[in-house]
Amino acid sequence: QVQLVESGGGLVQAGGSLRLSCAPSEGTFNSRAMGWFRQGPGKEREFVAAIRWSGGYTYYSDSVKGRFTISRDSAKNTVALQMNLLKPEDTGVYYCVSDPGIILSQIRNPDAYRHWGQGTQVTVSS
Q: Which residues make Cβ contacts (< 8 Å) with residue 46, sequence separation at least 6?
C-alpha cells in the first residue's frame, strides 16, 4: 500500500516561513488530487490546501489564502506547501493526503482521501 511521507516541519517564530514536502514511499502512484490537512491542539482536523494533478488548479482555506502556496512536481509525484507569514494559530500536525479518484466537489472533505501520511509537526511561537 502506498505510504506518504512528510518532511519540513519544525519550530518557527510568528511571521516566519516553512516549506513542507510530501512524497510517496513506494515509487510513483496515480493521483487525481493531493493536499494538506492540519489538526491543532484541541481543534478539529481542517482542510488547508489541495492541488489537482492534471492542470495544477489549487484550492485553499480562507484562513491560509494569500499566505500559503501549494505546488506539485509531476515527474516526482511530490507536493509541497510553502507557508509564509506564519501565525500561532497555524500550529498543528500537518498531514499530506492523496486520492486517485476523488470527486472534486469533495476535495475539502478528509473522508474522501484514501492515502494519508503520518503527519509533521509545525509549531509557531508568539
A: 37, 38, 39, 61
Rounded Cα gap, residues 102 and 112, in angstroms: 6
Dist CA 28 CA 14 (whole Å): 35
Q: Any idea what DSSP says for residue 1?
A: -
Q: How far apart are CA 102 and CA 9, in angstroms?
A: 27
Question: Is-contact 24 2, C-beta < 8 A?
Answer: yes
Per-residue pLDDT tens for 80-97? 999 999 999 999 999 999
Task: Please give the C-alpha separations between residue 106 and each of 53, 85, 113, in angstroms, as whole numbers.
Answer: 15, 28, 9
User: What three-state secondary structure class fits 104?
Assistant: helix
